[in-house]
UniProtKB/TrEMBL annotation:
Residues 393-427 have a biased composition (Low complexity). Residues 387-427 are annotated as: Disordered. It comes from the Bacteria. Keywords: Membrane, Transmembrane, Transmembrane helix. Pfam families: MFS_1. This is MFS transporter. It comes from Microtetraspora malaysiensis.
Length: 427
């Protein structure tokens, strides 16, 4: 645990992670809060509630690169302030909005959601050394699991026992975003200060095969995870044990947290494509389980690889992107994660409808394997006249803060059918 103590000892890191956890937990809860509000507060169907959740998720997916580019241009504090104010307006207005207006407003709120994860990931890259970064991103990925395990269950409990109101969750988002704005963490390391005056590189200079490989694998891992959630529910529904779904999901989450912490403490990184491939292989056999105890056993094997895979994706993006465009690159990462969440459930759901619940685990696992294969092939295809600095690492990391074309370095955040990882992609 020495590596984690070193990370938390970095000035400003512990407060940043605390505020980020608050914001991300509230963001994770917000989609579920809107769902419960539409069903219980407006007395409408689950299809209508799903429409609002889908609108907000679509806004989050499209807003990532936009907010990231704004952060590159104007810095984190002003972007956080603007999004905090807009969130205040949205969440205070939700109780008086008719459904049609709420649908449009939810999309806008997702588009301009407080960019807690974007700022946190950029700050981690700027505030840590190469030796600390893997442990720092492991902590960041564990945050996503914690936010899921805490946020949605509290929303459901409060909606059932107290009120389906949503203002409190908006207040938590605002508090977390305002806290990060007050901290105003640095997004450039001291040796990257010149990036602000050197001008933005053209997109084709940094959005090359290596970065595309990372984004494909980001899409693949969240598609796998969201599909796994649906397959768990389908399997337990067929067995008449759907009430145990929360236990199975909790086992997955705890295993992921343990896996993330163990991986962050390892002396050497593993390639992203290898971790994602192993996660896909570990997911497919879960289809052999037909009741909740065996699903829990399967969940331990797959869960141990979830957070490590997500952390290597974030680490790779931070290393591949030049400092002056790191916000936009991190926004693209968030969009890829959100797109995977959005498409994982319907694709796996189609596989389940055409076969059996076990087919859902197979479809999810194969999606992860396909993304891992594409990522591996892209990362091992260096551009002309130069060798990819991460080709030997599978995008898992390198000692430099950003890859240099002429160097060849040696070998580095919602699990429910409606909200698991769909908000941790706000991860």
């Amino acid at each position: 645990m020495t590596s984690y103590r070193q990370v938390l000892a970095v000035p400003g890191m512990a407060p940043l992670l605390s505020m980020s956890l608050l914001a991300r937990t509230a963001i994770t809860a917000s989609v579920m809060a809107l769902t419960m509000y539409v069903v219980l507060g407006l007395d409408m169907s689950y299809a209508a509630a799903g429409g609002v959740a889908a609108a907000m998720t679509a806004g989050m997916a499209l807003g990532g690169p936009l907010l990231g580019r704004m952060i590159d241009w104007r810095g984190p504090r002003i972007v956080l302030r603007v999004t905090v104010v807009l969130q205040v307006v949205f969440w205070l207005s939700v109780p008086i909005m008719p459904y049609g207006i709420l649908l449009v407003a939810a999309f806008a709120a997702g588009l301009l959601l407080v960019p807690a994860s974007l700022v946190t990931r950029q700050a981690i890259a700027a505030m840590t050394t190469a030796g600390q970064r893997r442990a720092a991103f492991a902590l960041e990925s564990v945050q996503g699991e914690l936010s899921y395990m805490v946020g949605p269950p509290i929303v459901i409990l409060c909606a059932a026992k107290v009120s389906p109101g949503v203002v409190a969750w908006g207040a938590a988002i605002v508090a977390g975003g305002a806290g990060i704005a007050l901290l105003n963490p640095p997004l450039r390391a001291e040796d990257e200060a010149e990036a602000d005056t050197a001008g933005r590189p053209r997109r084709r200079e940094w959005l090359g095969p290596d970065m595309i490989a990372v984004l494909v694998m980001a899409f693949g891992v969240t598609m796998l995870l969201s599909g796994t959630d649906l397959a768990i529910v389908a399997t337990l529904e067929e067995a008449g044990q759907v009430s145990w779904a929360a236990v199975v999901v909790a086992v997955y989450g705890v295993a992921s947290i343990v896996g993330g912490l163990v991986y962050g403490a390892l002396p050497r990184p593993l390639p992203t494509w290898l971790l994602l491939g192993l996660l896909g292989l570990a997911t497919i056999p879960a289809g052999l389980a037909h009741d909740w105890p065996w699903l829990c056993v399967a969940g331990v094997g797959a869960g141990l690889l979830a957070a490590p895979t997500l952390s290597t994706v974030a680490d790779a993006v931070s290393r591949l992107a030049p400092a002056s465009v790191r916000g936009e690159a991190t926004g693209l990462q968030s969009s890829a994660l959100s797109a995977g969440f959005a498409l994982g459930s319907p694709i796996v759901g189609g596989a389940i409808d055409l076969s059996v619940p076990a087919g859902g685990f197979a479809a999810a696992g194969l999606a992860g394997l396909a993304a891992a294969l594409i990522g591996c092939l892209l990362s091992r295809h260096p551009p002309a006249r130069t060798r990819s600095p991460l080709s030997d690492l599978g995008l898992a990391g390198a000692p430099d803060r950003a890859p240099a074309p002429d160097l060849d370095p040696p070998g580095a955040g919602a699990r429910s059918g409606t909200s698991r990882r769909s908000s941790t992609a706000s991860r």
